[in-house]
Amino acid sequence: MLKVENVTKYYGDFKAVDNISFEVKEGEIFGLLGVNGAGKTTTFRMIMGLLECSEGKITLDDKKIDYSVTDQIGFLTEERSLLTKLTVKEQCLYYGTLKGMKEEDILSRMDELLVKFEIPEYKNKKIKELSKGNQQKVQFITAVINRPRLLILDEPFSGLDPLNIELFKKEIIELSKSGSMIIFSSHRMEHVELFCKKIMVLLNGKDVLSGDLASIKKKYRKKNILIKGDIVLDEIRKIEGVVDAYPFNDGYKVQIENIDMTSNVFNYVKKCNNITEFVVEEPSLNEIFIAKVGEAYEK
Fold this sequence. Notes:
2 domains, alpha/beta, 4-stranded antiparallel sheet, 6-stranded mixed sheet, Alpha-Beta Plaits, Rossmann fold, 34% helix
C-alpha cells in the first residue's frame, strides 16, 4: 500500500503542498486532480523520492521510498521524455536497464507490449520517426516495462485518438487487476470517471475535495434532470429548487439544488405535453470539479 501522510512541501517560503493525506491499495486506481500549479507534480516527485517532504511521510508497504524501491515504480510524465535519436528497442533497453531488468526480460516484455499497442513493426525505428501518438505509446511502454508495483500516470491519453485510448484503457485495467497501485491524473474528468473510485482534488496545494467518488456524487448538492418534451424554460426556472435549465442534446437539462426538489419539477412536467423522458442523473465529475474549485477561489 502507498501511504501519503500529512505531507507538506515548501520551496523556500512558498508552500507548494499543504498537509495532504491519502492511500492507494493494491489494484486501486486513485485520481489525483487539480488545475495547473495545484501541487500535483510536486506530489508525484515526492512519491518517487525525487523530492523530500518538508513535513509528513510517504511510504510504500510501510517503507520509505528510496533507491531500494524505485525499481518498483513507473511514471508516465505529461511532457515527452523520450530520447528521440534512439530506436524504440534502444529506448526500452535503456529504461528497462535503469529499472534493474535483465536484457532478455526487457526484450520479451517489449515485444509483448509492442503487439498489444499494435506497433511491433516500429521496434527498430527511431523515436523521431514516429507520430506523436506512437511516441506516446512508446512512452507508456517504457513506463510499464518493469510491471511496476506503483504506476503514476500524468495525462496518459494526451495526443491519442479514441481507438488508441481504448488500447491504453485495456492495459491500465489489466495492470490494476494484476495488483498494481495506480495514480491517475488528467484534466479530462470523463477519463477519471472511467477508472477511479477514489479521488483527491488539489488547489494551491490543499485538498479541497477527496474521498469515494460515488459518495461525493451522492452528497453533491446539485442534481440534474434530463427532460424530453414540450416544456417552457422560463417557467421551469421559476420553480423552487431549480438552479438552472437549458437546452441539452434533443431535450433539456434542469439542475436542482438537491434530490428533494425533484417532485417540484415533476409536478410541473406532468402537466406538459409530449413528455417522453424524465431522468434524474448524478452530476458529472467535471461539474463537481468546476464547482469545488470555483468555491475555493471565492473564499
